[in-house]
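Need tokens for this chain, all 247 residues.
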Amino acid sequence: MRELGDPSADTVLLVHGIGVSARYFRPLATALAADHRVLVPDLPGFGQSPRPDRPPTVEELARLLLRLLELRGAGRATLVGHSMGAQVVAAMARRAPEAVGGVLLVGPVVDPSARSAPAQGWRLLRDSFHEPPRVNAVIASDYVRTGPRWYSAVLPHMLAFDTSAAVARADVPVLVVRGQHDRVASRAWCRALTDTAPQGELREVPGTGHVAMATDPGPVSRWVRELRATDGESGDRQGRARRGGAT
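Here are the structure tokens for all 247 residues:
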């Protein structure tokens, strides 16, 4: 796992999607490290992380990363998940809202209108035409490293996970983010997911595809900071209320 930034600063956890690794988060992690502590793990079986005996479920990944935050003394962390990683951070927020300041779901899956391996594969192929060559190169090399067997073993867990149900029970600010030309996470699906969240908002990164945070990390890093500020204001209000000073 990579760790960047000031260890005493507010923590941001970046969770990658299926088949890839933490490498495509490098531009966003670098941007956030200026004023945050940034944790960027490789999920089990991906990137440089060892491959377990069996593929973990989304809920198991959520428990694993919550334990990681606890061991690292992260406090209330902001969670950024991309694609399948969006499912993981939604599950984390549902399970332990006290440990989560807010979540950004970038290109979240799985759109119910495409809940099958062929449909997801077709959408991903179409999306590749909207990604810069450098991003496609990172993703392709990670896919080769992962291999079809492990990818195929993890995929059913991704397809089976009910992202909407997790988001509906995530009592934290939820920012749904999609690239303007994202062919995996449609605008209609992202809007429906946003409407499901108790505290939801939808934003788009202009001119980008599914991997928006790698193509243009500027807007996403700015929105992380805004979410942190919102969480800080909420914490101050709660503190004043406990002390009897709220108005």
